[in-house]
Amino acid sequence: MKQWLKVSLLSCAVLTSTQSLATNYSVDGRIDAMGGAGTAAADYLTGVFYNPALIAIYSRKDDAGLLLPSFGLQVMDRGGMIDDVDQVQGGFDKIAKGDPSGVNDINAGLNNLSGDALSFNGGGAIAVAIPNRYLSTAFYAKASMEGMTLPDVNALGSTADPIAMADTTAVGTVAIGLMEAGVAFAGYTNFLGQNITIGVTPKIQSYLTYTYVEAINNFDFKDYDKNKTSDNSFNVDVGAVWFYGPWRFAAAGKNLIKNEIETAKVDVKFADSVNGGFHGTKSYQYNYELTPTYTAGVAFMMNYFILTADMDLNEQERFIGLDDNVQMFRAGAEIDLLYQIQLRGGYKKDLAGTYDDAFTAGIGFSPLNMFHFDLAAIYSVDSTYGVSVNMAYEY
Description:
The strands form 3 sheets. Strands 1-2-3-4-5-6-7-12-13-15-16-17-18-19 form a 14-stranded antiparallel barrel. A 3-stranded antiparallel sheet has the order 8-11-14, with no helix packed on it. It has a two-stranded antiparallel sheet with strand order 9-10. About 45% of the residues are buried. The chain is mainly beta. It has 5 helices and 19 strands. The longest helix has 17 residues, at about 1-20.
């Protein structure tokens, strides 16, 4: 069980990074290393993922840029859910072999499951940017998947017996894959003596939802894609940047058209492992809200040093009824050593409380300032781990 969970999580990352289209989860080794604070600090090539107005901010040497490939993965196992599910399943195996100590394993596993959650997100992206003084343009495609695995202990609420409680405990995985492709347009204007860029990104989105819920003794994470739905829609991002000297102040709105995506309905029959037959049935169905996200950002940008911060101005609910709301504060910094090596660090905090505080770090290599390789890692005390990497080319 435990190994299948780990393998399947990695498979989700491969799936999303090879389909070439994504959610609010942006994959960028440079900005990810800076806590994900890209609303004001991303460059003209990766700005399309954070704020379309950024693609109009470039240097004279920048004629075109290519991001290929870019991918990442993040996993959180809050409370050690993988181990707790494995302990309950191991207890059932012991009982089947006549070992009475399996009851203790089941009881301990069920007690530990309360409050556990396993979440994952990952994705991949490509982008092509053509900055110019008339109308800067960027084409992009990205794919991402985010999901949660949660327990429903004593789902029928009708017993206090450990074995019966285990029989009626469900584990469910619900995930959404969001693939999108779009083109961003941005231009520069001097309004009342102020330097401003404004951008917009019309895009096509395609959704895939996966719902898998099963009694804990039969749960197997590799079956997460058993029940699937799909849909398509149009959406749009907007953004603006005001800059003066080394300072940038930015605002962006992503996914301005709200969409609610409904998952497949799953009926779970809870078998009675002692007496035979069934305890009962429970139905599971979820709705995912893709709502507008508004973010403000500030950056202090020098040739060899960058300091930046972002704040989400509203809370995203995501899966309705599940405890997965997010509202992020992000901050980061970069030190550039002679335009060849970049050292980065960052911090992110979920104001909604779903995720614990996390720290990020990364390094970038820019030989001749034409080829860029960026690597980032994320870590928090709640067993959150992540990595992202990208390669970019400038001409």
